Amino acid sequence: MKNSPNLLFFLSFFFTFIVVGQNSEQPMFLNWQQPIVNKISESKSLRFLYFEGAYFASEHNYLPYYVKEVNLKKGQELGGGSLKEFEVSDIDYNTTDIVGVESIETEFKITYKTSYFKKDPKGYILVFPVRKNASTGKIEVLTKFSISFKEQAVKQPQVTNNKTATTSALASGNWYKIGVTSSVFCLFYFMTFGFFVTFSLWLPSY
Fold first, then answer.
1. Whether pLDDT at 42 is above 50
2. CA nearest 140: which of 155, 149, 126, 129?
3. 22-24 and 45-51 strand pairing
4. Residues 141 and 133 sit within 8 Å (Cβ to Cβ)
5. In the predicted model, is pLDDT for residue 158 greater than 50?
6. Alpha carbon of 199 to those of 95, 176, 193: distances in Å?
């Protein structure tokens, strides 16, 4: 029995979707160097962990992190990310005075987010390649890793049963369009009780 063209097309589309939906990047290598030193006064300096191309931010306690940009199709967003096939090395220098060392976690961390520029989505994967070994207490860094991430359709917000239109005071009655004679945005227009009566827009009931 021969396979129909429609079946072959469906299978091809299905497996292509799986490959595109789950992406695995080529291995990345981090070139760790000696801490960078920022002299803030004659008697005080700050030391920061550093690898080539590192990013820093106060919200991450000035610990270095790696950023991967992902081009997304319209209607897509990042749905997750994880580290694979990584290699670890110990830091061979004193880290007691490193900025942010007290906030280093016991596991490597990866976060992701989707941003938009002119309605075009772009994904950002942040890898925090520093951890504190829970058993030895030593600071360890990633020297090699791969990132596996997933693309998914943008989740639409759940639509709740909105009853505003049927219960609002604006749900019934007459609507009027009132023009103005100036385009100056800071000019105020006052519509008094007499204005509405004059144009029969409101008639008192007795």
1. yes
2. 129
3. unpaired
4. no
5. yes
6. 80, 11, 10
The rounded distance, in Å, linking the Cα atoms of 30 and 155 is 34
DSSP string of the chain, one letter each residue: -PPPHHHHHHHHHHHHHHHHHEEEPPPEE--EEEEEEEE-SSS-EEEEEEETT-B--GGGTT--BEEEEEE--TTEEEEEEEEEEEEEEE--S--TTBTTGGG--SS-EEEEEEEEETTEEEEEEEEE-EEE-TTT--EEEEEEEEEEEEEEEPPPPPPP---HHHHSGGGSS-------S---TT------HHHHHHTTS-----
pLDDT bucket at 23, cuts 50 / 70 / 90: low
pTM for the structure as a whole: 0.63
Give the whole-angstrom CA distance, residue 17 versus residue 98: 45
Task: Identify the residue whose tokens are 């990345």.
Answer: 28
Q: Per-residue pLDDT for 143 more than 80?
A: yes
Find where tokens 């396979």 sit.
3
Cβ neighbours for 202, distance < 8 A, ≥ 6 positions apart: 193, 196
Cβ atoms of 63 and 103 within 8 Å: the answer is yes
pLDDT of residue 22: 53
**Which two three-digit tokens encode residue 7?**
């079946």
Place of tokens 């827009």: 201
